UniProtKB/TrEMBL annotation:
Keyword NAD: yes
Domain Lactate/malate dehydrogenase C-terminal residue range list: 172-337
GO cellular component: mitochondrion
Domain of life of the organism encoding this protein: Eukaryota
Enzyme Commission number(s) from the entry: 1.1.1.37
Entry keywords, A to Z: NAD, Oxidoreductase, Tricarboxylic acid cycle
Family (UniProt): Belongs to the LDH/MDH superfamily. MDH type 1 family.
Keyword NAD in record: yes
Protein name per Swiss-Prot or TrEMBL: malate dehydrogenase
Gene Ontology terms describing biological process: malate metabolic process; tricarboxylic acid cycle
Subunit structure: Homodimer.
């Protein structure tokens, strides 16, 4: 995050404000599900971005207080609240980036796919409104199961005649954040230096960290690869179990989503060097959607980085083949849901 944290001294505040005022472009961001466990800390982190001029917070309840609270932070963006379906259209008009963390989280013993029945309908309704009110916005889908909710969103946008595959993103940044953290801890590296691409999807074995492509180059024993891969794949469950019925990852997710929002805003602002992993429409494999590193630009996905898939280790190549049937089934389930409802 470029804004990091609010400067303490008055002098620093002035410098911060000067930088903000010198900024050429600013953008409008909407968070749908903004009163939730992810929504609230995510809104706070977005409120700290100098690239944001307006922050629109939408939920079915309890969003007024969140917005009032947040609006007292002396950062430049204006915070507006929107409650319920009747205010959704106004929330979305003129928005550049829409982030969707609306939906139910897992409890211990559940898979992400167990959330499908509730969250598929929520995502469908929200994406219909996005299609009607800000079809040109970047759409960031956080709601699980991401492997199905992104294909649902794509189908809804197609039905509305406004699908732009370059602007629809499944947020998998948390998998990268976790991989970076766990590798840095294991190898005693500075956290800031480590970058591990994570490909595939966002559930269990479909999450595939490419440890052999870690930057800076690091060597791992077979046992370390196995242990780290399994930990990264199960990290969401680790949090669900630790929260013992009180939900899933919210704070680390808010951090990861804020990073993806900031990267998108930097790309919209003309930064030519923005790379993130994301679950997007892709031709990298035979699957229609696939997470990989992408280059972000003003128009969304500018390039899908194929080189990460060259020269995979035997372990990674096998894991890639093993994840495909599950990921394919989750994608098809999402597409079938959206087509049946059409
Ligand atoms: P939460 O229950 O704390 O918050 C969800 C919010 O969504 C609530 O405020 C609720 O009122 C709102 N909501 C429900 N229906 C809505 C609708 N129709 N329109 C607008 N808002 C609506 O849950 P959470 O912990 O914030 O998690 C949200 C989702 O994010 C879950 O599906 C969870 O599995 C997912 N998640 C994804 C990742 C990822 O890496 N992609 C990580 C963590 C959580
Ligand atoms: C995560 O990876 O933390 C999220 O997908 C939430 C979950 O259900 O694990």
């Amino acid at each position: 995050l470029r804004a990091s944290f609010a400067p303490r001294a008055q002098k620093q505040t002035q410098k911060f404000e000067n930088r903000v005022q010198a900024q050429a472009s600013t953008f409008k961001v909407a968070v749908l599900g903004a009163a939730g466990g992810i929504g609230q800390p995510l809104a706070l982190l977005i409120k700290m971005s100098p690239l944001v001029s307006a922050l629109h917070l939408y939920d079915i309840a309890n969003v007024k207080g969140v917005a009032a609270d947040l609006s007292h932070c002396n950062t430049p963006s204006q915070v507006l609240d929107f409650t319920g379906q009747a205010e959704l259209a106004n929330c979305l008009k003129g928005v550049d980036v829409v982030v969707i963390p609306a939906g139910v989280p897992r409890k211990p013993g559940m898979t992400r796919d167990d959330l499908f029945n509730i969250n598929a309908n929520i995502v469908r309704t929200l994406v219909e409104a996005v299609a009607d009110n800000c079809p040109d916005a970047f759409i960031h889908i956080i709601s699980n199961p991401v492997n199905s909710t992104v294909p649902i969103a794509a189908e809804i946008l197609k039905q509305k005649g406004v699908y732009n595959p370059k602007k629809l993103f499944g947020v998998t940044t948390l998998d990268v954040v976790r991989a970076n953290t766990f590798v840095a801890e294991k190898k005693n590296l500075r956290l800031i230096d480590v970058d591990v691409p994570v490909i595939g999807g966002h559930a269990g074995i479909t999450i595939l960290p490419l440890l052999s492509k870690t930057r800076p180059s690091v060597s791992f024993t077979n046992e370390e690869v196995e242990q780290l891969t399994v930990r990264i794949q199960n990290a969401g469950t680790e949090v669900v179990e630790a929260k013992a019925g009180a939900g899933s990852a919210t704070l680390s997710m808010a951090y990861a989503a804020a990073r993806f929002v900031e990267s998108s805003l930097r790309a919209l602002d003309g930064d030519a060097d923005v790379y993130e992993c994301s679950f997007v429409q892709s031709e990298l494999t035979e699957l229609p959607f696939f997470a990989s590193r992408i280059k972000l630009g003003k128009n969304g996905v500018e390039a899908i980085i194929s080189t990460d898939l060259h020269g995979l280790t035997e372990y990674e190549a096998k894991a890639l083949e093993a994840l495909k049937p599950e990921l394919k089934a989750s994608i098809e389930k999402g597409v079938a849901f959206a087509q049946k409802k059409a």
